[in-house]
Amino acid sequence: MFLSRCLVFLVRLLMGATPRWLGCEPHPRQRIYFANHTSHIDTLAIWSALPPALRKHTHAVAAADYWGKTALRRSIALKGLNAVLVERQPGQGGNPLTPLIDTLKQGDSLIIFPEGTRRPQRLPGEFKSGLFRLAQQFPDAELIPVYLENLHRCMPKGALLPVPLICTVRFGEPLGRLPEEHKDAFLARARQAVEELA
Amino acid sequence: MTPMEKFVWLIGGIVALLTLASLIGFVLKRRVRSENGLETVLNLQQRVNAWWVMIGIFSIAFLLGPTTTIVLFALMSYLALREFLTLTPTSPNDHRALFVAFFVIIPVQFWSIYDAWYGFFTIFIPVYAFLLLPSLSALAQNTDQFLERTAKIQWGVMVVVYCVSHVPALLILDIPGFTGQNALLLLYLLLVVQISDVLQYVCGKLWGKHKIAPVVSPSKTVEGLVFGGALAVGVGTAMWWITPFAPAYAAAISLVIVIMGFLGGLVMSAVKRSLGAKDWGSMISGHGGMMDRLDSVCFAAPVFFHLVHYFYVP
Q: For chain A, which residues lie within 8 Å of any Cβ of chain B, measuring from their own Cβ?
């Protein structure tokens, strides 16, 4: 895990990435962390904010079209961040969630960005349905909303290198599941849970 | 006394002072009953503990030599600028300028001290950085609040990079009869500034009645400034033997340090409040952020540097 330690050190030196456990405590049970997405460092920031013991069993979800592109990015993502790569534009018939489902089946935790793409603003945009489907299929996994503060300023879309500004990673209260809740209502509630941490 | 003996006496004195402060904190914690009082005592203890850590870091840096000291101050500048710009609203169009501020201007400024290049050290930020940073922002083609954005970045770089860099720059002054002892001068500045802050705070808590600037900084009082400041000048005068100054000059220079430190705290507090914050950060527990500890140093360092340069360097 040498690479992983170097990455965490670098993130601490650049943006602090201090965790704020507002609605829950760090715990090794199975969790799906879902966060707003504004920069390439988001994954690293959440990863650094987690205690080392939890990192081993937590996998970030990364876009295969970005993180799988070069050998360097690939090894950062897979070895450094324990990431699971997903195809954002899957070929005919394939279920893009398959790698995530496999990870959850092993009992590990996931970090996902339900917006699907980076947004240039403070507050998250519309959530895609993946979170809803995973939440249904794994009813025992805790759903933890996460808000990443200031990361859109550290590395705005289009920037190649980050500027060091202090970022905080806020973990909220686990999102409850309501019986027979419709997909859209669930996603809106999930998004609001992230916004409330802002 | 050799410089090393002076250093040991100085650090020994500070350690004795901190031990006393820790003991006072320990006793107070057992005696205080009220909730408000307990909070003050806990904050006092946190502050004292942070002082132990800071003194430890500085002693090690000084023993390792000038290069380590310069690197330490570069790192402090970096962390302080990070706090400053985190609170300051910036636009994505300033990204390049900000990147250059952190990763070009800070290294070059501190490298010029390492290189002992006085002429470049004094003008690099006021001239070159001043002209380069707005150019980078202008190339991003966003004129919205351009002057405000440029001014904020420039001001941050001036205060936390340029002003702070005058502390390690004391190491390059060539003072006749004081060769190899410049680190003591640096310690002297930090000691007087910080002890002045502490004594003003303590005197203000004990006897403070008349607030000087309640809007800007509610904890600053006339009594705190006068009594605390006078005591700090006393400490500065008593420490004349680690400096090249005669006792009377040490008193005058300490007075300047105390006044500049006070103004620094006041101005930085106004900046902080205009940005809507109470503390600059949370790095140093009990104190707030790096900038909360450096604010008075920012203003005292350049004036101290130039006084010494004018009167003691031929």
A: 16, 18, 120, 150, 153, 156, 159, 161, 163-166
Residue B159 contacts residue B218 (beta carbons within 8 Å): no
Comparing CA positions, the residue from A31, A50, A11, A59 lying closest to residue A145 is A31
Mark whether B57 and B87 lie in a shared domain: no
pLDDT for B182: 94
**Tens of pLDDT along B99-116?**
999 999 999 999 999 999
Phi, psi torsion values for B160, nearest 5 degrees: -90, -15
Nearest to B92 among A156, A164, A165 (CB): A156
CB within 8 Å: A165 and B85: yes
Q: Which CATH class is domain A2-196?
A: alpha beta
Distance CA A110, CA A33 (A): 6
Of B172, B199, B216, the one marking the end of a domain is B172
Mean pLDDT confidence for B174-191: 94
Q: pLDDT (tens digit, 9 = 90+) per residue, A74-103?
A: 888 888 888 998 887 766 567 888 889 999
Q: How many domains does chain B have?
A: 3
Task: Answer yes or no: are the C-beta atoms of B295 and B287 closer than 8 Å.
Answer: no
Q: Tokens at residue A122, please?
A: 């403070």
The token duo for A189 is: 């509630």
Query: Which of B172, B203, B223 is the C-terminal boundary of a domain?
Result: B172
